[in-house]
Amino acid sequence: MKPHPHRQKPNTVTFQLPTYHDFWNPNLRGLHQSEREAYQLIVEFIEQEQMSTADKQNFLRAVEVLSGAVHAEGNGNMNDYYPKATLAKKIETLILEESTEILDSSVRQQAMLCVVALSQVNPPFHLSEILDLVSAGISSVFSLPLIMPSLDRRESASLYLQMTQALDDMLQALVMDNMDPNMLILENFLEIILPWLTQSDKVHEQTRALGTISRLLRFVCNFPTLLHMELFSMTGKLIGILGLFCLNPNHEISLGASEALHYLSKILVLQRSVRQKTVNILRNLQKNFRGEWFTSMQNVTLFFRKYLTPVERADVIMVTMEGMTSTSRDDIYAASNMLEMILKYSIPEIGKVPEIIQYIYFHMNSITETTAQKTIKKTLYLLSQSYTDEVILTLFKIEDQSQKEVCKPWEILASFPKGCEVIMKHLLQRLVPQQPPQDREPSQRAEISPLIATRAIHELLLESSEQMEVQTLFSPLFVALLLRASFLMVAGNAEMTQDQQHVTEWVDPVSSTVKALKTLMLSSGYGNLESEIEKLGGWELLVDPERHYDGVTVVARSLVMKNCWHNRPIFGLLMRMLQDPNCTNHFTALVFLMELLQCPDVAAIVDDFVTHILANWFNCKEPATVKLLLQMTEVFTKHKNLERRLHILQPQVLNCCYSSNGDIVMETFLVLKHLVEDLTWQYSSSFLIQLTFMLEPFFEEESEHLRLLAFQIYGSLLAKVKRRVLVFPLRHQILNVIVFLVLHLQDVNLDVAQTCQVALCNTAALLRWSKLREVFTKEDVFTITGALARSCKPWTWKR
């Protein structure tokens, strides 16, 4: 048993006091003869170190008489006659000098009643004086051996009852501050008394402590006003301790704890409940007064949820967890039962979460009892669901500061599949932080950064043994981690500063994110996919600032090549994200979609709504994004379902021809060239006809490359035209373009001239101009021009 902090009794008492009577001459005229004699007796005995029992009793009686005289004066002050602090110290010494082996005199109770008398006069005791007197009284009374009522020990039993009453009177007198109890003083009293309950292995000491607490609380609950109730910080700890002792196998201890818990509950009801409900609640409490342990636990659960503050609830949890580390099986069983009951339903708001997590981390291995282990793991699990950020921050802080791993919290969290899923979903939200509403007040609780969320996801994935649970979240985790890596590539490592205290090995946010992404694939059963990406150099490319998007392409292409089952869910998530025009990771999403659209399963689910989302991104101001979208348009020619939706993108593509950005215009014509080669007249006739008209201004473009592309596109387009579709206005436009083709037969760019000559021949073949076709094969412009002039008769054009 641990030694009591207030039990040690010196072998001898040394008491040195200044001789006040040498320089102090109080006015005793107002005192009666008996009161003057009491004063003289005090002066005579105050300096004596060795006093008989009779002398002690006479001295204490004299102090009571003098206190009564001062009290009768109304505004009297004990210091006018003798220093009150000196008297209190002498009384404390007399109490401590009493034997703790046998109760054979009334000095104790007389001394404590003398303290009561002194407490009624000015000046008030200092807090230190009060606590010294209480500590002495508690230690002297509680240390006495067990005194059982019997015929031969009737006198001792009676003396003990008187002494107990005197102790109660002293405590009740000293807890008062003027006319109301002071809860801060009560808190100090409890700190003195509780070690006798929690650290003692003697039943009679524990029952004395419980009885004293119970009677003191009963006294306090009689007052409507309690001073400093809002500062009273022992409520949670006291409820926890009393609740545990309600489950004690010793009936006397259990009953004492139940009584004390009843009066503490009554105080909380009177101070914290709505007045209209107070009467009914108190009536129900009274019905269950001295009830069985289960009733007490129901009360604990009720008050834990409804009447305690978050910090007080945390104190209750801490007390129960401390009970689980006990060497007593009864204590462990009681603590497990109590914690299980108070956390049985939805967990209310709890404070001191980091402290609770630290206690669990460092004491997990010392809890060996099976039920207790399950309860403590469940506590960690419940807290991680309700306070994910605080739990994760605390775990990382502990692990980063510890030299070795004490326990495996991530393994515990991952052992609850459904709970792990909830935590993962929360971490997903932290990976992609949302802007809080402007009217929302800032949270007082800690929030983890995306980097810490990434690290936590990695730890949980490493420990997860439920592949199916991981696969359920594979798509959102994959998308979030990939986009996070891209964001860090663009935004840099700016957030490292705020996370430095929580980061050790995870010093490179991009590499850390890619590491988590690889672990996700391995945990989801995609080991072959992870190896394929490694083989293609995708992981290295992802962390390369200059080739990051090449890495994104490799990862996406690998998913398509391996026909990953999650391709469609990933596609759905990316499209949902792209609905937001302010999406910060749109470029990464589009790069990924570029490859994903080449998966037949994905291409088959593309509809008009999805295609319109992509079309809207053509309005983006970033040239790189527009160029990427232009390239993506080519993919729409590779699948029948996509080709049916190409008409939604075509207006946007044609608009890009008139962009002020020369690179975009050039990219557009390259894309148009490929589109015309791949498109069929069946699905794209309208677009092809429109393109025929749109190309005309670009035949005179100064850029040779662009001019060449315009003629090449026209040539490819012309090759797709069949005579059966050659009607107005397409026929009319083809005839008009002949002029441009002829004029550019002498273009400075030989490729342009050659392209125009081929186009002229194809035009003649389409129009069935057999004679002109022979002329067009010649390179002489004047010959061709003359032949055309001779053929320009009305009937020729009409035909």
From TrEMBL:
<dbReference type="InterPro" id="IPR045206">
    <property type="entry name" value="Maestro_heat-like_prot"/>
</dbReference>
<dbReference type="GO" id="GO:0005737">
    <property type="term" value="C:cytoplasm"/>
</dbReference>
<dbReference type="Pfam" id="PF23210">
    <property type="entry name" value="HEAT_Maestro_2"/>
</dbReference>
<dbReference type="Pfam" id="PF21047">
    <property type="entry name" value="HEAT_Maestro"/>
</dbReference>
<feature type="domain" description="Maestro/Maestro-like HEAT-repeats">
    <location>
        <begin position="612"/>
        <end position="781"/>
    </location>
</feature>
<dbReference type="InterPro" id="IPR055408">
    <property type="entry name" value="HEAT_MROH2B-like"/>
</dbReference>
<dbReference type="Pfam" id="PF23227">
    <property type="entry name" value="HEAT_MROH2B_C"/>
</dbReference>
<dbReference type="InterPro" id="IPR048465">
    <property type="entry name" value="Maestro-like_HEAT"/>
</dbReference>
<feature type="domain" description="MROH2B-like HEAT-repeats">
    <location>
        <begin position="48"/>
        <end position="176"/>
    </location>
</feature>
<dbReference type="InterPro" id="IPR055406">
    <property type="entry name" value="HEAT_Maestro"/>
</dbReference>
<feature type="domain" description="Maestro-like HEAT-repeats">
    <location>
        <begin position="204"/>
        <end position="423"/>
    </location>
</feature>
<dbReference type="InterPro" id="IPR016024">
    <property type="entry name" value="ARM-type_fold"/>
</dbReference>
<protein>
    <submittedName>
        <fullName>Maestro heat-like repeat-containing protein family member 7 isoform X3</fullName>
    </submittedName>
</protein>
<keyword id="KW-0677">Repeat</keyword>
